[in-house]
Amino acid sequence: MRHLLTTLMLTLATALPALAQPAPRPFDAEAANGLQRLVEPEISPDGRWVVYGLKTADVEKDKFCTDLWLAPTAAGGTPRRLTFSCEVAGKPHWIGPAGEAIAFLAARGGDDERKKGAQLWQLPVAAAGEAEKLTAIPGGIEDYALSPDGRRAALVVMDEAPDPEAIAGWKRKTAFPIVIDAFHFKQDREGYLEGRRKHLQLLELDGRQLRVLTQGEYDEAAPAWSPDGRRLAFLSNRAPERDRTEATGLFVMDAQPGAAARQLATLTTDNDDAHPAWSPDGRFIALATGDDVKWSAYQQWRVGVYDTASGAGRVLGSLDRGWQPQLAWTPDGSGVVGVVDDDRHSQLARIALADGRVERLSGPGSAAQASVARDGRIAYLAGAWSQPAELQLLEPGAATPRPLTTHHAAWRAGLVLSVGREFSARSADGTEVHGLLALPPGARLPLPTVLLIHGGPNGQDTHDLGPRGVMRERLVAAGYAVLQVNYRGSSGRGRAFQRAIFGDWGHLEVQDLHAAVDWAVAQGIADPARLGVGGWSYGGLLTDYLIATDARFKAAVSGAGSGNQLGMFGVDQYAVQYEREMGAPWAQRERWLKVSYPFFKADRIRTPTLFLGGEKDFNVPIAGGEQMYLALKMLGVPTQLVVYPGQFHGLSLPSYQRDWEARFIAWMDRHLGTRPQQTSATK
């Protein structure tokens, strides 16, 4: 008996480590729905806490939910959830220098309350505190900024819509007709632009008194308080023909109703995430700044610094890499902290005010959204190839950051993720092209391979597990090798690389993408008989270009794309870019036909192609997919069109995102053949 018990104990002891290992799980729809996203972190003024949003998928309600969380910066601390309504719109900010409460935007309450749009709320940091609603503004609040003392807020509010029930003395049961007289007259999600303006209003948090700060025929955006709380900086396009240019002005005004606004500078910074950042002494404003408006679609954002007294401005440093638009000053005012995009990576960095010297503060991977406390602590988001972004803290003098959250630890347990590596290829004209390769672990090569193309084009594929990483992992889990290529027009490789495709779409990008596929075939990675291609937005456009150029792709998925750019004139939201970059179709007919070759040479296409898009997309309207679909249908090429009802350029429902991924994979499976069996051998 003793021998039997001993044997049994030894057997259990041997088995326990194996039992402790979670069973392998594929990256399927369930895994995709379980992926959470941390957003908008802000460190408290004293550096003790970080508030952030956590975005999750509610599968039963088929919606994405965002709630606020609070993470202590002290070692060993545990984050806790602050809100539970699933209705937070975002933008959490600390109230006052002590940070005893947090402000945020949310559309909460009954249906009537939610229809008013996002309102401003405040929430005590104390565990038992309840959120208090501060505003009830019809149409809601677009953005806001809190004064340093926490007593006032500058709100960005759109003009109230006219009452549809009263016009010309009689009642209406329908909305007003939309009357348009602007050059730029439509925008994705906003719809047709009706001439309503966004202005600044001043809210006293204690008495709830609301007063108008700006009014007139201009929009104001991105308010930011001076350190002494006396002035506001904001952005506004007040050019004579403001709807035909992105030449945005940086303005400063006293934070009082009726005060005049003084323009400090005219610059190109139409990025929605760009906000003026005051230096600690109030002498300067840092702002993400672009080059001439000619390059607005291919901007490489740099750190601009503007003197608040004279308006004199300069761009810091000569680094030929772009900065993400969220910038923050160091506590001593000696430099600016942000994130630099650099060749498949994005890194936390500091740039010196004195000489423009750039110091990298984080290693390889994907960093974003840095926030700086008074004591110099920096909170930011950081992820990697197989690690979704988590909150990190970099303390003054520390060589490496320290993680503050582990929201994805349980999600990652047992999850089978791809094996990633970087690669380079040589394009037809000798240009070196960089990309990322994802493989199923233990796969036998060659594999059916999908060229997954990012949108933009001004963007880059990086070492991260964000939205594009989900499609990559879904494809790898289905047995495919995946190529992600930063073709010319992408960011992260310098200005010349970004601007190379100006007015010449579907040319150099196609060469670069083909070079990557050629490399994968030559390396024995990609099976040349089973090649697929797909992407969304500009990735959808490039998919159309590729299949009209080369018949070697046996399956294609074009999401929110178009092959007839001439047919997009006046239909999409890019009137300003077209006028500047392409010229008028009647004056530049050959140029427009050249960039529309997928449609006008559709008879060369042999690739079975799936087209998808949002019904309400004004960015790349569904007409772009409909035209290509009907062309291939007429030509007898296998094709299908999928329209997502009520959706804009990006799919906003979990069910639609999973549907797009599933249809993408099913289309590849159907036309590229049976998936190969996985083995332990890797060539």
TrEMBL record:
Coiled coil: none annotated. Gene3D superfamilies: alpha/beta hydrolase, TolB, C-terminal domain. Residues 475-673 form the Peptidase S9 prolyl oligopeptidase catalytic domain. Keywords: Hydrolase, Protease, Serine protease, Signal. Residues 1-20 form the signal peptide. This is S9 family peptidase. It comes from Pelomonas caseinilytica.
